[in-house]
């Protein structure tokens, strides 16, 4: 009685469904009304979130960015034959014959399920499953099923069978936050789909049928059982021989779970920050932000953030200038020099010949996406700002050279009376000596002679994002700024000394492309003249003396013509050193995240850290 009732239900359902589908796929006069129906079910372009990738200078992937669903996308021509056949043989044997819905499969599934008294076989085509994955929910309702059929028909009109199969294989879910077959191959086996054995391929193909039931990590026995069923189906369709199917069934499957990689989190975090800047410039957000205020600026910022998210989930490839060997050396130096000390630090290495960021450490034992001190910490630069704000402008305006004299005796401007480090006031000294010994009173006299506004006009050439009119006071000559500067900003400014007085902003990103290699974004190279070549050459001589006979003696690596300048803020809150040789400009900062006086044993750490890095760079 139960069986007869079941077959009666099949007959009634098939009759109703056939009437509906005849209207969809049948005679031409009926198709007009179906097209009219489709006007209310416009599907648009499928948006498939996919991972983006960051590459170092050698072309190696250093970070896989999963900003939406974790998905490695493969084009149809790159999907292995066995992968395609595993799904075609089990999910939709007539995929290349039907128009989105397979009537014979519907009838067959109903018969099998009624006879079994449970759902043993599905009737959804690959097209229908793709529609569910990309456009609809998995809600069980007649309305959703009807919409699914309509969408499936439209998808078949808009895209080739090969493209729909590509959408399907990249959109199916493999449990544990994994979407798409290629992603599953890397996660569960640590290799690409083209490197999988037949046993591994069919094992993974088992998961999407019921991801929680066939979870490879917790229900491996279930997965193995379905894998064997898939191999039988592939044998039936002729996709594999019986011998190969039997061999794959007998082959043990060993998982090798591999998490998404991020080899250099300090650097890649900055790359994401720079990508936001690049998109902001190229798509007009930065210009709009300049003229906005209050809520409007916040709205533009939110819009930009959404755009960055959109770009990162579109599967872009970000090529960078990272030198992996230098990065490893720099992060190791920071960890080594600050190990066990009550403080933190950061370091940056730039290639000033190419204006590229080669290495960047955000702090000791840096963890991904935590506070990055190289570009997110804004601190008082101390005397490290003197060559840029005091000596450069003064010498450029007055045609002075390093042998000219300046008074380093006591000096007050109104009630502001800075002291020299150590308390000495030597009187008349050369500009070279004044910079090398970092005499504050000498710097104040030069700054006053040039004038505050004139001196600050030189800083406009650089990328100091938080320097503004509030900093236009005499304490700035000694590095006293209201909101400070970042280590990366300061180090980038120091590249001017190696480029004949011209400034080019150093970048990490070479270019951003789509999956086909089309360039989407890249920086325009711009150069700004800061001061004359003569002034620049004098400054280089003077900064050499900082290392040979001045406050930077402890940073001297003993090899190469290194030049630079120290910086120390009041009460030893911040310690800086920025310098350069014939190829690299590097800067370091040491301090506490919550500004406080550094212990005595930390007060030379910036020199030791910089020396450690410079010694390694001397051999490059």
UniProtKB/TrEMBL annotation:
It catalyses: [GlcNAc-(1->4)-Mur2Ac(oyl-L-Ala-gamma-D-Glu-L-Lys-D-Ala-D-Ala)](n)-di-trans,octa-cis-undecaprenyl diphosphate + beta-D-GlcNAc-(1->4)-Mur2Ac(oyl-L-Ala-gamma-D-Glu-L-Lys-D-Ala-D-Ala)-di-trans,octa-cis-undecaprenyl diphosphate = [GlcNAc-(1->4)-Mur2Ac(oyl-L-Ala-gamma-D-Glu-L-Lys-D-Ala-D-Ala)](n+1)-di-trans,octa-cis-undecaprenyl diphosphate + di-trans,octa-cis-undecaprenyl diphosphate + H(+); Preferential cleavage: (Ac)2-L-Lys-D-Ala-|-D-Ala. Also transpeptidation of peptidyl-alanyl moieties that are N-acyl substituents of D-alanine. InterPro entries: Beta-lactam/transpept-like, Glyco_trans_51, Glycosyltr_51/Transpeptidase, Lysozyme-like_dom_sf, PBP_transglycosylase, PCN-bd_Tpept. Its EC number is 2.4.-.-. It is an enzyme of class 2 (transferase). It is found in: Cell membrane. The keyword Nucleus does not apply. Residues 345-583 form the Penicillin-binding protein transpeptidase domain. The keyword Membrane applies. Its main location: membrane. This is Transglycosylase domain-containing protein.
